[in-house]
Design goal:
Elements lengths: L2 H8 L4 E9 L2 E8 L13 E16 L2 E14 L5 E3 L13 H11 L4 H8 L3 H18 L7 E10 L3 E8 L4 E7 L7 H10 L5 E4 L3 H10 L5 E4 L1 H25 L9 H5 L2 H4 L3 H13 L1 H13 L8 H17 L3 H12 L1 H5 L9 H16 L6 H9 L12
Parallel strand pairs: 2-4, 6-9, 9-10
Antiparallel strand pairs: 1-2, 3-4, 4-5, 6-7, 7-8
Length: 404
């Protein structure tokens, strides 16, 4: 075998071929360095060999055959400075059992196949494939530039039973998940904002739910001027939760009176009005329900009115709209609505800032479905850092979410 073939096929530069062995269907190529090296300590050429060690490294396969490179690495003794060193093995990273070219091959396969499929295809363990993919993702994550980050979304996802969460940050301009950390409190974002400051980013706006933790994190860890936009999706979802609480209270009250008129109406009340209009039977049932219960009727209309906030012609009109909505919600005298109206009033500036920065966490919410599929395909993740890295590059995967 020529030295050119060793280099171009297996990435073994400056090695020479010694012999080939065939064992159990595997192919072993024995190689050693072509040239006598110089001393790495004093750069002297006055060195002699003082033994060797053989390293067996998994290399690129030949068809279905597994291939190994057995590299003889000599121990060299420097006559000038007395240093005793071993030749460097440039074809593999330290403490790895495979060549760099093999690692690249596995990485390329894993971008279009599941980790289990890659492991079966080339005859290695799933853990080895995962190790290679993880190390490549770590390198990619470190190389990412955050300098141009201007608009971000922050949200949490549930990852395990028992209230285990992870905090995600997405660059809304590129669609990339920049950061993933365990937990959903303020501390989960400390490292993110530290790196963002080092990158010299000029952050303009952050969209989030009305979480105190995330709000405090931005205010503490990013002292520069930035717009905080409370997300439309979460505000509407919070109002839906309020409406559901009111429905539950009314249901309990009516059941005590022996009436079951609103039982089973939850999803009718939470549906968007325009979607319900396409279902005449359900619309008729909802109309009957609302006609029979004034409290639910008023709360439902407030829910639908709130959704109109984001379609006002200007920020000034939106401010007048939401101020009137708060007054109407409080006037109902319902404890659930009053509490929610007070929260909206306290955060009114961040809600109105949508008219300056019309961004939502919708793209991040859409990512949740992909993440759920990823978790399901992998039967859960024991290595949470690997899970985080997979999420950070999930936008590069195919629709079927390969690589789990």
């Amino acid at each position: 075998m020529s030295t050119s073939l060793l280099y171009h096929a297996f990435g073994a530069k400056n090695y020479k071929y010694l012999r080939t062995e065939y064992s159990g269907g595997d192919i072993l190529f024995y190689i050693e360095k072509k040239d006598r090296p110089s001393c790495r300590e004093c750069k002297s050429d006055e060195v002699v060999y003082d033994g060797y060690e053989a390293y067996t490294l998994r290399a690129l396969p030949i068809g279905p055959k597994r291939v190994y490179l057995v590299a003889y690495l000599h121990v060299i003794l420097c006559r000038r400075c007395g240093a005793r060193l071993q030749e460097e093995r440039e074809i593999a990273d330290p403490r790895k059992t495979y060549t760099r070219s093999f690692g690249r091959y596995v990485w390329d396969l894993a971008r279009s196949m599941t980790l289990a499929d890659v492991a079966r295809h080339i005859g290695v363990s799933w853990d080895l494939v995962k190790e290679i993919v993880k190390s490549n993702l770590e390198r990619k994550a470190k190389k990412r530039s955050w300098r141009r980050v201007k608009h971000i979304a922050i949200d949490e996802i549930a990852v395990r039973k028992g209230h285990r969460y992870m905090t995600l940050v997405m660059d809304l301009d590129t669609g990339e998940v920049l950061y993933v950390a365990e937990g959903k409190g303020k501390e989960a974002l400390r490292a993110f904002f530290a790196r963002l400051r080092r990158a010299g980013a000029k952050l303009k706006a952050v969209v989030m739910d009305m979480s105190e933790a995330y709000l405090n994190a931005v205010q503490e860890y990013w002292p520069r001027r930035v717009a905080i936009v409370h997300d439309r999706y979460h505000i509407v979802a919070n109002m839906n939760a309020v409406l559901d609480d009111i429905r539950r209270d009314e249901q309990n009250r009516l059941e005590e009176e022996g009436k079951l008129v609103i039982k089973g109406s939850r999803y009718l009340l939470l549906r968007a009005k325009e979607n319900l209009a396409k279902l005449p039977e359900k619309q008729a049932r909802l109309n009957t329900l609302l006609a029979l219960n004034e409290t639910l009727h008023k709360a439902y209309m407030l829910k639908e009115d709130l959704r109109l906030f984001w379609s006002q012609d200007s920020r000034k009109e939106a401010k007048a709209f939401i101020s009137n909505w708060i007054i109407e919600a409080k006037a109902m005298g319902n404890r659930h609505l009053t509490r929610f109206a007070q929260t909206v009033e306290a955060r009114i500036k961040s809600i109105l800032d949508w008219y300056k920065h019309p961004i939502t966490s919708g793209p991040l919410e859409g990512m949740n479905n992909k993440i759920k599929v990823l978790k399901r395909m992998a039967y859960g993740f024991r290595d949470m850092r690997f899970f985080a890295l997979r999420i950070m590059f999930i936008h590069e995967t195919k629709a079927e979410l390969t690589g789990a």
